[in-house]
Amino acid sequence: MFVPYTGPSNQRNPKARRAANAFKAARGASRAKGGHGTLQWVQVPDSSSEDSSESSTNETPSSLVIRASKSSSSRAAEPAPLPKFVLGGQKFYPYHGMGGKGPLTTTALSRYFDILLPDDCKAQGIDVSRGAAYGGGLLKWIAQHDGVLHGLTAFALCSLETVGKTDAIYQAILHHRHKILEDVHRRLERRQVDDVLIQAICLLIPVDDYLGYVEYGPVHRSGLSNIVKIRGGFRQVGNSDMAFGNLLQTSMLVVMSMIDFHVQTRIAPMFLPDERPMASISLSSEMQKRIFALPSGFQTLVHAGILSTNVLVIVESYEAWLLQVKDVELKDRATWRPQLLSELNNVEKCVVVTLVCLADDISSLGFHAAAPIFRKPKQRSEALTDVPELWADPALVDCVIWMSTVISTPRNSRSIDPDFRKEVLKRSIRGRDFALDWEQIQRKLRRFFYAEERAGDWEKAWNLALGEPWLFE
């Protein structure tokens, strides 16, 4: 959520919607002809911005540091089919000849294998030896399959763009994304359904999501599901190479669940007046006990009828996760994701997304170099300010302050403009004279879920916002 399914992609690529339309048309045509429509869903966009990005790069192979193996044990650990690659210092270094594959290729691949891959392995609980095998498998695939090479490059550049956003990086991402689509399209035309195709699509999905090409997400999701069926089912995914195994299955589940989460937490376009059904309904003693166990802020909203009992399951799931990981170091914690319900209202969807952001910030995902790709603090903050229900009801003041604080203050502070965050926080308290210092804000945050691990960053962000002259006029 909070990647609106109506906006950003239309601003950067007005032809992006064609993917969904082409999917429907191709499927309908295929059925009319009695043919197989499963492999017809990907269309290669002809955006001029992407074509123009294929211009040559000034990058030279010398920009990539290549180390030789320092010991025979390191050489022994190197996968046999990879004579062009060396393993040194427990890091993989791609063959420098790949620099000719497109703009910033060697820079991106170096970032992936040096920084992102270790984080990926840690997030999936992979030990050093398994991680080395996994990295070796990826190196083999990028040497043999352009779709995987361009996929890893684009994904790494998306994480790099959050560190230092430039037009050159953005154009490079578009170039490599275009190349992924071309490779996937060729494989589909040849009906070449294999793990390489699945890996390429699993890399394409988060790239499109990061760029805001959200119309593609559900289309890719549907196509990927059909690909897996043709592949022989979920258990067959990843079995073509021992280096991958169930790791490719995990990658596929991650990207598919990401799309599902966006779709299920999509904000309803119309503002419907809240009927406050809970206020007039008598609750069972068991339900009252469950409500009483919630943080006080949630109790108030449930009793006021703003939150329904549907959200209880999700909030209780989050509390159970907190209890489970309380003795685990932040960098070693697996993050939390809820089982979503279709009956959630807009306010409840905002609560769920806020909890997901908070879980990411106090788990290993918050330390991942690619976390901003999935955390989306700016996009989610913007969407939060566009939910009229949140800003029209005085009873939601404290909740809005909590949501704004969590969503706009990610662990990776470089992934959001501090001035933008300041404006989000200022809006959450504008015209309310109680918000004169951090202690008062802190008391309101504690009415919901308050993370001591994040208190320092939250206090710093609020002190910057509270220091603005307008507040004291």
Automatic annotation (TrEMBL):
<feature type="region of interest" description="Disordered">
    <location>
        <begin position="1"/>
        <end position="80"/>
    </location>
</feature>
<protein>
    <submittedName>
        <fullName>Uncharacterized protein</fullName>
    </submittedName>
</protein>
<feature type="compositionally biased region" description="Low complexity">
    <location>
        <begin position="19"/>
        <end position="32"/>
    </location>
</feature>
<feature type="compositionally biased region" description="Low complexity">
    <location>
        <begin position="54"/>
        <end position="79"/>
    </location>
</feature>
